[in-house]
């Protein structure tokens, strides 16, 4: 359930601005999605010009793009830490809480983004809202999806199994799990909902990223707006 909106130029400005934060010797978390892809390409160009970095991809697609861009890649287990992670978001509220998971990569994204000394979000203006209300992607164990659906209903939400496009059956994550898109309406307490979802048996990870973003770059028609 990828979100749409924003122009390529807006996304490019945000991604390239975030890529300027990467310093020589850094370990960089490489996010997923169309805006993060611009950052990965920009880091790749800097690598070709002599910048020495190592990238930790958060999805199959970001790994493929990193390799195509000439960025040396590694895993979390091979490094002592992550200097900066650059990733997109499906929605960003006024307190910089995020909803992610439109590309079903939010479990790995959260691990890398949370491990980073600095987590930078890149987005276009269509992703910014005052209060979150977008459905929350929840990665679940295949055997548990029906039970998780019932638990989500008990939490006041409605869960829909994400179906694959141009294939029969559901979306399967890089981790071999399923995704439920869970609609709660207006989310006035992201911290509380995040805590409750994390406590549901069978949930691998949910797409609420609470108190994780350090900086948000929003690409506009004529520049980049920095939100702290």
From TrEMBL:
Reactions accelerated catalytically: aldehydo-D-ribose 5-phosphate = D-ribulose 5-phosphate
CDD domains: RPI_A
InterPro entries per the UniProt record, alphabetical: NagB/RpiA_transferase-like, Ribose5P_isomerase_typA_subgr, Ribose5P_isomerase_type_A
Binding annotation for substrate: 32-35, 87-90, 100-103, 127
Pathway: Carbohydrate degradation; pentose phosphate pathway; D-ribose 5-phosphate from D-ribulose 5-phosphate (non-oxidative stage): step 1/1
GO aspect biological process, one term: pentose-phosphate shunt, non-oxidative branch
Keyword Chloroplast listed: no
SUPFAM superfamilies reported in the protein's UniProt record: D-ribose-5-phosphate isomerase (RpiA), lid domain, NagB/RpiA/CoA transferase-like
Protein name: Ribose-5-phosphate isomerase A
Species whose genome carries this gene: Halobellus ruber
């Amino acid at each position: 359930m990828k979100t749409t909106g924003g122009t390529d130029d807006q996304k490019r400005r945000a991604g390239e601005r975030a890529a300027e934060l990467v310093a020589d010797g850094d370990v960089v978390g490489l996010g997923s999605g169309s805006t993060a892809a611009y950052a990965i390409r920009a880091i790749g160009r800097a690598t070709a010009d002599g910048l020495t970095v190592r990238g930790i991809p958060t999805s199959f697609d970001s790994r493929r793009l990193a390799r195509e861009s000439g960025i040396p890649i590694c895993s979390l287990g091979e490094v002592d830490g992550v200097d900066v992670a650059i990733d997109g978001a499906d929605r960003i509220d006024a307190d910089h809480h995020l909803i992610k998971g439109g590309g079903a990569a939010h479990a790995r994204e959260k691990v890398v983004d949370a491990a980073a000394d600095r987590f930078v979000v890149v987005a276009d203006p269509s992703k910014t809202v005052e209060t979150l209300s977008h459905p929350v992607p929840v990665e679940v164990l295949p055997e548990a999806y029906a039970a998780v659906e019932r638990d989500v209903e008990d939490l006041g939400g409605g869960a829909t199994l994400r179906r694959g496009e141009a294939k029969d059956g559901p979306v399967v994550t890089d981790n071999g799990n399923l995704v439920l898109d869970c609609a709660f309406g207006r989310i006035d307490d992201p911290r509380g909902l995040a805590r409750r979802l994390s406590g549901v048996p069978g949930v691998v990870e949910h797409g609420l990223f609470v108190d994780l973003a350090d900086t948000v770059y929003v690409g506009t028609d004529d520049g980049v707006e920095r939100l702290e």
